[in-house]
Design goal:
This protein is 73% helix and 0% strand. It has 374 residues and is mainly alpha-helical. It has one domain. Helix 13 packs antiparallel against helix 14. The N and C termini lie far apart (90 Å). The N terminus is likely disordered. Belongs to the fluoride channel Fluc/FEX (TC 1.A.43) family. Its main location: membrane. This is CrcB-like protein.
């Protein structure tokens, strides 16, 4: 009885403290809730969540500082994707190469989603550069759709039947979704332990000279892709250098579509959906052109390199699995999640069929032949 009276007395003596503790508990819950809700707008430049941002820390989505910083991170993401695919491509491989690409990009995305607040306090364009630029360019929705479709038609010419083709395509579909969502959750889980250790009040924006210098260096990085393309051996053009020319335009297109169209519907991110579908259709067209002869002659090495660069660079960066997976987690109901996945996957495969079908039926395309880069 005495203990109960003592507690009541302490509460009456310190009502403000009791209210503060209650508010803090609610803020902790709301903070986790907001971290999930904000995934739907991950391409937007963040604001500070620990305290109101002063005007000097606020950036417009199309600020030169934001757009320029997308350049080097798009290039790094493209190089990482091509590198991981090359490392994971060998005879008798156990896992399809894109599995490493998608899981790595989604892990990084999940890790930095929880750090949106601290990064907004420090330098908001850096958050957009990592998530939209690097992760969005590292992962690829169009490459996933092409990989699945190649399984349906047995593009590798393997000794197997139609049922095995179906199982192979289904495996790439289910495993890609599972790996992507699981990797993102794991990244977010690890980031959860790091976020509280970041001293947000002590974070300050980089000096103005540093920000301007970083923007100039980012623009110079894109200019440097031109001499890299022309000066390195022609064999590198189809493998990497051509893709670097088109990486930033692909990321920029996706970023514009996301900023303009994602706010239209809360239950379906139209901007990301449009980017993924446009990129998937274009990749199918480029792939068909690579495998078709012109007047009974194969495509020239120069044209083949450009087509490969458009596929790996523009389409690879225009489409994304990391943002796609983040938006799946952000949707509120299971119905919305399943609907978004099914619509995206079905429309992507239909686009592949519409582009590949006539070429395959006409016999003008060979499934197992690619044009030469040199």
């Amino acid at each position: 009885m005495t203990n109960s009276k003592d507690e009541e007395l302490r509460t009456l003596q310190h009502p403000v403290q009791a209210d503060v503790e209650s508010v803090r508990s609610q803020q902790d819950f709301d903070g986790d809730h907001r971290s999930e809700e904000s995934i739907a707008s991950i391409d937007c430049v963040p604001g500070g969540q620990s305290q109101p941002l002063p005007p000097s820390k606020t950036y417009h989505p199309f600020s030169p500082h934001v757009l320029a910083l997308l350049i080097p991170f798009s290039i790094f993401g493209t190089l990482a994707r091509l590198g991981l695919q090359a490392l994971a491509t060998y005879d008798d491989q156990s896992v399809f190469p894109l599995a490493y690409v998608q899981s790595t990009g989604c892990f990084v995305m999940g890790f930095f989603l929880r750090l949106k607040g601290p990064m907004g306090d420090f330098y908001a364009p850096l958050y957009t550069a990592i998530t939209t630029g690097f992760c969005g360019s590292l992962t690829t929705f169009s490459g996933w759709q092409l990989d699945v479709f190649n399984s349906w038609i047995n593009a590798g010419g393997g000794d197997r039947g139609g049922f095995q083709d179906f199982i192979d395509g289904l495996t790439k579909t289910v495993f890609t979704l599972s790996l992507s969502l699981g990797s993102m959750s794991f990244g977010s889980y690890l980031s959860k332990f790091i976020e509280p250790t970041i001293p947000r009040p002590k974070l300050s924006q980089p000096p103005r000279t540093a920000r301007i210098s970083l923007t100039i260096l980012s623009i110079l990085a894109y200019i440097a892709t031109l001499p890299i393309y022309f000066r390195l051996p022609p064999s590198f053009r189809g493998q990497a250098t051509a893709a670097l020319l088109f990486a930033f335009p692909g990321t920029l297109t996706r970023y514009f579509l996301s900023i303009y169209f994602n706010p239209f519907l809360a239950s379906l991110p139209l901007g990301t959906f449009m980017a993924n579908m446009i990129g998937t259709g274009l990749l199918a067209v480029f792939h068909v052109l690579q495998n078709m002869g012109v007047n009974a002659s194969p495509v020239s090495p120069g044209a083949c390199s450009i087509l490969q660069g458009l596929g790996d660079g523009y389409c690879g960066c225009l489409t994304t699995i990391s943002t796609f997976a983040a938006e799946i987690r952000a949707l509120r109901t299971p119905f919305e999640k399943v609907r978004y996945v099914l619509i995206s996957w079905v429309v992507g495969q239909l686009l592949m069929l519409l582009v590949f079908g006539p070429a395959l039926l006409s016999g003008r395309i060979q499934r197992d032949r690619l044009c030469a880069f040199e």
